[in-house]
Amino acid sequence: MNTHEDLPISSATMPADAFGLEPLLDVTELAAYLGVPVSTLYDWRTRGKGPAAYRFGKHLKFAVSDVRAWVAEQREPA
């Protein structure tokens, strides 16, 4: 399983441990990690299918733990 160190955190992002907080991904970073267009993430949100997000003004941020949980839920049965 991936750790948050494996997720694409930009160099401009403050390290999470600087404040004792979990890292947050923006829409572009999450789209790159999942290999889908940003528009797909917005479409999933309107249909209630994507990972949970936080809204800060007009910006969406995704907690790494929420992304991990959502990715695990997407696994197809063996």
Task: Give your account of this protein's structure.
The protein is of the alpha+beta class and 78 residues long. Helices cover 35% and strands 14% of the residues. The protein is built from three helices and three strands. It has helices spanning 27-34, 38-46, 64-73, and strands spanning 24-26, 54-56, 59-63. 14% of the residues are buried.
Give me some keywords for this one.
3-stranded antiparallel β-sheet; alpha+beta; globular; single chain; 78 residues
Task: Walk me through the topology.
Blueprint: E1 24-26, H1 27-34, H2 38-46, E2 54-56, E3 59-63, H3 64-73
Antiparallel strand pairs: 1-3, 2-3
Following the backbone from N to C, one meets helices and strands in this order, namely EHHEEH
Quaternary organisation of the protein chains: single chain
Distance between the termini: 17 Å
What's the alpha carbon Rg, rounded to whole Å? 13 Å
Report the biggest beta sheet as strand number plus sense, adding barrel if it closes. Answer: 3 strands, antiparallel
Shape: globular
Average pLDDT for all residues: 86
Helix/strand/pairing class, anyone? alpha+beta
Tally the helices.
3
- Largest sheet strand order: 1-3-2
Number of strands: 3
Runs in which pLDDT lies below 50 for 5 or more consecutive residues are: none
